[in-house]
Amino acid sequence: MDFICTKCGKRTPTTTLQPACSCGGLFELDFTPPKWSESLVDKNEWSQFRYRRFMALEGEAWRDVTMGEGRTPIIRLDDDVMLKMDYMMPTLSFKDRGAATLVAHMKSIGVKTCVQDSSGNAGNAVAAYAARAGIRCEIFVPEGTSPSKIRMIESHGAKVNVVPGTRDHCADVCRTKVREEGAYYANHVYNPFFYEGMKAYIYETFEELGRIPANIVIPVGNGTLFIGAVKALEHLEASGAIDKFPRIIALQSENCDPLFKAVEAHAGVPAHVDPKPTMAEGIAIGVPMRGKELLEMTYRHDIAFVRAPEEKILEARAKIAARGVYCEHTTAANYAAYLAFCEKNGPTPDTLITMCGAGIKSDH
């Protein structure tokens, strides 16, 4: 299996330790999954790897890495909204989907040390799975990251570097280390194996409900779930398993909205923004590295973008908690954005919203 550069088209074996193409372009996987068939789902495996025939995975390294991630329940919030409880995972966030898949790949090619930059959840997930795989790990997080997330990362034996400034600056500092020291970049934006795991969000939903909801709310910072979900939905549609692409309602923080602004202008690249502090720290990405790809998917499927009102996030969190579900601030922004969408567009029934992070991770 090869990587293909999204910029120049050059092929590179997936065994490479380089984070990107020599031209600077990001990698995509040369992988087309087989046509969806329930017979290809491994019903004896109680994790997201029951769908591994539809993921770009080679070998059996995943067996030594998995901690039973995925297979999260879908529950009712009200008559219009269902919640997929993705914080019911080993590190209490949806990023376990991508981390388990990426670390399985890393183990299969013999990676010994890795680094990553994160606002918290992805860093914690990579740290946990790297520890399980025996891979040394160093995580860079921006100042203002929840202390709970930092403690969780450190508990797995990873070194944590708190970087002053924005989330984007934190990424620049980490990438400098990758360039200068040659550490493996276990990054959820650069490495497409991460998206292969995120596809399971859709496969699980389809298997559990026997259908895909009419509306799916997806938070977008760097767009890991967005890319994985779109790829999986395209796969189901191409397989004839679904006859209609659902409406995706993508959301950003109103204090950091480069993709929302780009869609407003129908631009092909993210807008330049000056990120402001936001409670939705998990999606506070001013410069999404796969922004062009995200926008291409947006226009291809007429995806709606909406902003989560900052002053409504805590209110949304309280409403969800009053129904027994305790989520982190970024996750509450999903519901706040959904309510804002309904105010503008009217009732929006048959909607699925991800509960991507547990509330205990953002009590700060």
Strands, total number? 13
- Spatial separation of the terminal alpha carbons: 44 Å
Which whole number gives the mean pLDDT? Answer: 96
Shape by Cα distribution: globular
Instruction: State the share of residues found in helices, binned by percent.
Output: 25-40%
Reported by name, the CATH topology of the domain at 74-89 and 196-362 is: Rossmann fold
Most strands sheet: 6 strands, mixed
The top level CATH class name of the domain at 74-89 and 196-362: Alpha Beta
Q: Output the strand order for the largest sheet.
A: 4-5-13-10-11-12
Number of helices: 11
Per CATH, the architecture of the domain at 74-89 and 196-362 is: 3-Layer(aba) Sandwich
The H/E string reads EEEEEHEHEHEHEHHEHEHHEHHE
Helix and strand content put the structural class at alpha/beta
Q: Radius of gyration over alpha carbons?
A: 19 Å
Cofactor: pyridoxal 5'-phosphate
Keywords: Lyase, Pyridoxal phosphate
Organism: Sutterella massiliensis
InterPro entries: Ser/Thr_Dehydratase, Ser/Thr_deHydtase_PyrdxlP-BS, TrpB-like_PALP, TrpB-like_PALP_sf
Keywords:
364 residues; alpha/beta; Rossmann fold; six-stranded mixed sheet; four-stranded parallel sheet; 11 helices; 34% helix; 16% strand
How does this structure look, described?
With about 375 residues, this protein is an alpha/beta fold. Among the domains are: about 30 residues, no CATH class; about 180 residues, Rossmann fold, CATH 3.40.50.1100. The chain is about 35% helix and about 15% strand. The chain has 11 helices and 13 strands. The chain has a 6-stranded mixed sheet. Strands 8-7-6-9 form a 4-stranded parallel sheet, sandwiched between helices. It has a 3-stranded antiparallel sheet with strand order 2-1-3, with no helix packed on it. Helix 7 links the parallel strand 10 and strand 11. Helix 1 packs parallel to helix 2, helix 2 runs parallel beside helix 3 and helix 10 crosses helix 11. The longest helix is centred in the last third of the chain and has 17 residues. The termini are far apart. The relative contact order is 0.13. The mean pLDDT is about 95.
